[in-house]
Each structure stands twice: as structure tokens, then as C-alpha cells.
TrEMBL record:
Residue stretches of biased makeup (Polar residues): 252-261
Keywords: Coiled coil, Signal
Domain spans labelled Transcobalamin-like C-terminal: 350-406
Pfam families per record: DUF4430
Biased composition (Basic and acidic residues): 265-281
Signal sequence bounds: 1-23
Signal is among the record's keywords: yes
Chain residue ranges for the region called Disordered: 186-228, 241-286
Coiled coil: 91-122
Protein name: Transcobalamin-like C-terminal domain-containing protein
Amino acid sequence: MKRLTVTILALLTVFLAACSSHQTDKATEKVTPLKIETQLPADGVIKKEQMATIVGKKATYRFTGEQEQIRYTWFYPGQQVQNPVTQHLRVTFTDKKLEDIKKQANNAQEALQLHIEKMELAGTPQLAITLPTKWSVDQAFLVRKIKGKLKQVKGSEVSLEQGKTTTLKFRVLESDVDYYLVAGNSQKEASSSESQSSGAPTTATSESATTETENPAAPDEATTADSATGTLATTELAGDKDAAEQEAAGNPSVTNNQSQVVPGEKSESKGNSEADKETTPNKEATVTFSISAKTILNNWDQLKKEKQPFVPKDGWILAPTKVPLKAGDSVYDLLVRATRDAGIQMEASWTPMYDAYYIEGINQLYEFDCGGLSGWMFQVNGWFPNYGTSKYTDLHDGDVIQMAYTCDLGHDLGAN
């Protein structure tokens, strides 16, 4: 019996030692830092631990994949990655059965459907898609279906690079969504070509049809189609002043705040969104900053009675305003400056756990003042960062920043 006990104890000791060794090896296992360019694995997954290796880096990291002979590359600015999360970067494409999409997009010449998998975006990456052939077009739009109607994805203008093949590049602001890239030739170019061939200027005749928007107050853009030329064109309907301000601020009351009626304003076919922000050397850099409590207007019954006097009738605590941008500024710095200059109350507290400031209240409106899911969020160019305002420093001239009060954990603002 004694010999059996000794044997069992010996085996148990060996087993525990092996477990301890395995745990130690696992704990000390190092993650290989991401390189500037990474070929995506078959599942397209870049793990949280891998993303952590590029946090705050002053470089843009590229992740490349391929499907159906279509090559795609994600561009992630390291400075925007502050709270690393696993990224699901596999993109799937189809160009089949898209005739109806082309028709809805004013008889677009080309169309491509793509699906971005569900994830929490770790930044505002750009996605470049290189086709195996060349599209003979001079403009393209990123659109998606909302309530059966095509709408342009706001804040995701598409740049075109033409060579032997076509490359389309745009910013990605949401995931778990089916997008469509639709492309054609601009009205101006088509009219010019017709004028040269006929010897006289021609005017495209079109039939305007208004489409429903997610927010009736926002300015609509009615789609127009020229069946003779297959060109893309827009007709902008008049909107009120408040609607225009909502447009400039990212329109917080729109349920899906990245979307507008297709096709939207004409985008330049050369360059990209970053190049568009370039300024003359002596021009002072500015951003458009606003503070909105519009969601409270739709949840008035949940608002604490003593807080009612602090909600403006139109919901704007600070309407879209140009604010100077200084080197090294964070969104928090701009918030402090904007509220100070406008005489608006603001309270924040430092949170050591997140190494960032937490915005407690603005204009006497605090967390939980309008329900258990209420509080302040911020967005930059339509994207809701998953970290604090004081950690967001990747700012550029022309950026649009909005502090917005949510009554539903951001869902009422369009955040995923």
C-alpha cells in the first residue's frame, strides 16, 4: 500500500510539473510583431495580440488578400489603433446578377458587390480593390441597400486609379455589411463627348424621382438617369438650414449615419481623400467640431425633469463650428477648447485603467440622465473610436468631429 501511494505521488508530481511547464511556455510565448505588409491568412483573421504590436505606431500597415482574381489591401494607420481588437479582414466579391443594382444606380456601367465580415473596427482603415480588368469609367460610388433603396455611403468617397487594371479605394466605416461599388462616366464628360460628335452642345434629359431617406430633415438627393448615355448625375433638393448643419456634422439623428441617397455629389477620379485635405502652406488647419443632444429629443420621456432646461430646442449644444487644429491636438484638447470658447459647461475625469479622459457631462447633461444606456460618445469622420477622446490624436485639416449624446449605447447614432 505504501509503495502504491509513493508511485501515485510520483506520477502526480510529474503531471503537475508538465502542466506548469506548458503554462510557463504559453505565458512566455511572444507574438511576432506585424510587418508593414502582411499577407492575410485564408480566414482573413488578424488576432488581437497581433494588432497590439502596432498600437500608436507612426506607420500605415497593409493587409493583403485575394478572391476571385480580385486583389484587395487594407490600410491601417497605426496611430489610430489604441484599443486593439481582432480584425476579420476577409472580403468576398461577386459581379453576378447585378443588373438591378446598375439600373438603380442611374444605369451604371459597372458594378461589384462585396461583403465585409462582422468585427469591431480598430480604426478607420482604407480598402483598396484591384480588379483583374479595367473599367472604362471616370467616377465610382460606394453604396448599400437600406429599406430596399440604394444609398451612398457618406464619408467613404471612392478614388479611382486607372492603368492596365482599375483600383478603387475608399474608407471603411462599418462592418458586417454588403456594399456595392457602382461606376460610370460623369455627366460633364458624356455631354462633352456628345457635343464634339454632333457639333452642338447637348443637354441630358432626365426624370427625377425622390427617394425616402432615413431622416426626413436631411437634404435629399434625387437620382437622375440618362438612358441614352448611361451616365451618373445628381439633382440636389433644397434642404433647410438645420438639415445642412446635420449634413456637415455627420447627421447624428440618422439611424445609419454613413448613408445618403445614391449617387451623391461627384467625386474626383484622381487622388484620394487624404490628398483632398492638403492645404496651402500658410493656411491654418481647422476641423469642424460640434456637440449634439438631438437623440434626447426623441427620448424626452426618459430625460430627468431637472435636466430638461439644458437641452436646446434644436438639439445643438454647439452647432458645427470651425476650430483651429494645432500640432499634437487630441479630440479631448479640441473639446476643451471648443467648450471653453463657447462658454459651455464640460466635466471630465481621468481614468487610469484606460489611460484616457472620460467625458462625464457637457452642458449639464451626464451619463444616465436619459435612461440607463445614455451618455456621451464621439465620432471622427463618421467613425466611432473604441477608446477615449484624449487618445485620439490622428487628426488632419478638414476632419469632422462630433460629440453626441446617445440614449441607446450608440445605436441611435449609427454606431455598430
